[in-house]
Amino acid sequence: MQADASPSGHHLVELKGISKRYGDLLANDRIDLAIEPGEIHALLGENGAGKSTLVKILYGVIEPTEGEILWEGRPVAIGSPVEARALGIGMVFQHFSLFDELTVAENIAVALSDDWSLATVRSRLGDISRAYGLALEPDRAVWTLSAGERQRIEIVRCLLQNPRLLILDEPTSVLTPQEAEHLFVTLDKLSADGCSILYISHKLEEVRRLCRRATILRAGRVVGTIDPRARSAREIAALMVGNEVGEVRSGTPHVPQGEMLRVADLTMAPGGLHGQALKHINLVASAGEIVGIAGVAGNGQSELFAALSGERLADRADAIAIAGKGCGTVGVDGRRRLGAAFVPEERLGHAAAPTHRLSENTLISHAAAEVSHSGFILVNAAKRLAGAIVKSFDVRTPEADPQARKLSGGNLQKFVIGREIIRRPRLLIVDQPTWGVDAGAARLIRQALVDLASEGSAVVVVSQDLDELFEVADRMAVIHQGELSALKPINEWTKEAVGLEMLGVSQSQGAAHAV
Fold this sequence. Notes:
By secondary structure, the protein is α/β, with parallel strands linked by helices. It has 17 helices and 21 strands.
């Protein structure tokens, strides 16, 4: 039975009137939040709602401008993560902080105090692993581990410090469905043992699966605390964004209308020390359809995108063809002139130059594609086009034509997607289109991809979000350790089958294992 209060009769932790101001920006505005012992409590909100600021205050990364934190009814000042951990607060960030060259045990030891020897870590690691089903091999090098195994290291590292509150930020973003379900079982056991969990996620169905209470932030304020099990995912999303979030709809059925992209026996060496080689990749995408590519991070998605976009060149021209023209040895600009457009995973620094204004980023991207028409885009025209993108894709900006770095992640993602779609490319290849964006922005982006395909473009979507792929894709394949599975109609896949492929297990092997 989940406890309702700590032994002292108070909430485990209570935030009262927390505000954080950055100049004119009020990131948190008098936020009240209470978490009980053993509770899994969700913290929800769209991009820029104030979630990250709030948990950084709770974990001691930043100080609040106003308000107080009570720990079991006692006011506390948390001046650093070290002080947070001493109090009993642990945090697993969305992006792992591990050293690839070190072993599991070494990665855990370096994060703990000097009192922890490797022998002690190995012993305690075994205890924790057995107690919570978090299997780890102490002497395995981290670079050989899957995303799910790396996340286990982060969680175990926190658990070894006996936390009473565990903060998890988007914990399933790089997990297969099977790994995610294993995590949920672990969290349920932690909760039953009295550990409180503050759970941050954009995946509302898993919030409904795990949590009994959810606090929703909008524009830095609490707009409600609800039981997510009593609301649908669409109702929760509407509370987050302030209006109804509709479903993605296809205006016309997607009917393939002719080959637009062909990848033929593409093989490439790894791009870096721990990069993934591509092995005999074959892929066809036709005009008028969306092809989805699923996979766990680190299995070759980045390398495949670089090969398709021309950032890395193949050794044969016919390894990649766009609109029937071999271009495997042609760079990004040449492929753009064939009618292709590309949106990489990393929006700031790769998709957009941080210190350049939106109009300048538009000019950089569109100039190569326009050579065959007018030779260049005038600066004023680029400003008008950037303004049209901002309007059409609901990009919320702090000023007219701001630098890219001044936009929130979700708004910058809408801009870079819109920048490519607005010129109606014959082929669009996009890597992680809705990574880390809220429900409203995700819906807008997915709808734009569906509409583009309905107008006759070929769209290739590389994504770790299976819900996304099942919503928008017409056909799908899975990439694992640089190899691509057979491309099949979406209705021939199940999430379980995709998850097994993502783990490198064939459907027949999975069936045998289940028996």
